[in-house]
Design goal:
This protein has about 375 residues and is α/β, with parallel strands linked by helices. The protein has helices spanning about 5-15, 20-35, 45-50, 70-90, 95-110, 120-130, 145-160, 165-170, 185-195, 250-270, 290-300, 315-330, 340-350, 355-360, 365-375, and strands at about 170-180, 225-235, 240-245, 275-280, 300-305.
Length: about 375
């Protein structure tokens, strides 16, 4: 029977920190092994590790000079680091000094501090924690949600995920608005392309070279770039409606849009008398009284997304980016008229490969599962 691998040991620790029961952890390991067509680990091996009796990855070294900071001390430092971060909830920066001070009381109580009167140097604690890959890293930015909003996300995902994956392709339409920037000159197109670059293959020393620098997020849109607002609808394996708002967005504009959407839906699903439509809670347009009346006239049943949940809107998590990427890939030179640019974007949108659109919609069920697994909170891919 194969022994537990380092990856499996790390996964067990992660699931144990998440307070998952031993039975669930054991079944997850069995399932992972089965996918690789390997015999699963023994239940005894898993439970012995969970109890801390075997596979001691941070056991103290007994040979040579005794270390000032043992593995047990680092465990306590790391525990208080995580606890402090949870308490401040990103309102303040947790420093190495904060961690040492917070852990000091427990270290003394357990007799792990030694005979020294003073705390060991903060740099020593930092050095040991860095060995566990704890270091200063950029904060991840997410949409800020309240507990109530997370609860609403969870309820919606639990209700929707019972549907099969194909349902979200064949039986549902999705609609969203986007303010589309129109770079019309070579310089504007260059800045727009730079704005969507997320990484480079480089050495640490090359980071300050001009070739590897992109504009800051707050300043990546050059001034003087015109924009226009678009409403797009997606169904089955393609974009079925691409409509530019003729004027300011509001109830009247939404009502006119729903009338056009009704025509597109009847062409896409002939014979259907009603249509399910996933949309956000935009009170100005989608959820306005004029918008609601227009949907009723067209036989459209609105399935409203929870607040701040772009990962359940295919246009947000996939298709807007894909359209923009393909438009920017086109080798356009010189100045371009706004009318020509709008036509190019529309052509690209309406000609997206069906396989890409379908794959995007098929991922809906898994995304709902991810939200449920995260208890309505942030998922890994957010």
């Amino acid at each position: 029977m194969p022994q537990l691998t380092p990856t499996e040991l790390a996964n067990i620790e992660r699931m144990q920190r998440a307070k998952q029961p031993g039975v669930k952890i054991f079944k997850a390991l069995q399932k992972a092994r089965a996918k690789k067509k390997q015999k699963g680990p023994g239940k005894t091996a898993v439970y012995e590790f969970l109890a801390g009796n075997t596979h001691l990855q941070h056991a103290d070294e007994t040979r040579g000079r005794k270390k000032e900071v043992t593995a047990k001390v680092v465990d306590i430092l790391d525990k208080h680091r995580r606890k402090l971060q949870q308490e401040v909830s990103s309102e303040y920066i947790v420093t190495w000094d904060d961690i040492v001070r917070a852990a000091g009381k427990e270290l003394r109580q357990k007799g792990l501090w030694g005979k020294r009167k003073k705390l060991f140097a903060t740099s020593t604690a930092a050095k040991e924690l860095r060995k566990r890959n704890v270091t200063k890293r950029p904060s991840r930015a997410h949409l800020a949600r309240t507990r109530d909003e997370e609860a609403r996300r969870l309820r919606k995902a639990q209700t929707w995920k019972v549907r099969p994956a194909t349902f979200w392709v064949e039986d549902v339409t999705y609609i969203d608005n986007k303010k589309w920037l129109a770079p019309l000159t070579d310089e504007q197109r260059k800045r727009q392309r730079q704005a969507v670059v997320t990484h480079h293959l480089r050495t640490p020393q090359e980071g300050k070279e001009a070739a590897y620098i992109v504009p800051k997020t707050k300043h990546n849109r050059p001034s003087g770039v015109p924009s226009f607002e678009v409403t797009a609808a997606v169904a089955k394996d393609r974009i079925i409606m691409w409509r530019e708002a003729p004027g300011p967005w509001g109830g009247k504009a939404a009502a006119a849009m729903y009338k056009d959407l009704g025509k597109s839906l009847r062409r896409t699903r002939p014979g259907d008398s009603s249509f399910r439509l996933v949309e956000d809670g935009d009170p100005k347009g989608y959820q306005s009284n004029l918008g609601k009346n227009a949907k009723k006239e067209q036989g459209i049943v609105s399935w409203k997304l929870p607040p701040r949940t772009p990962q359940l809107m295919p246009l947000d998590f996939c298709l807007w980016h894909e359209i923009e990427r393909r438009v920017l890939q086109e080798k356009k030179k010189g100045k371009e008229s706004i009318a020509n640019y709008k036509a190019r974007v529309k052509r690209v949108a309406l000609s997206l490969p069906k396989s890409i659109v379908k794959a995007c919609l098929l991922s809906m069920k898994q995304r709902m599962k991810n939200i449920v697994d995260a208890d309505g909170g942030y998922t890994k891919k957010e």
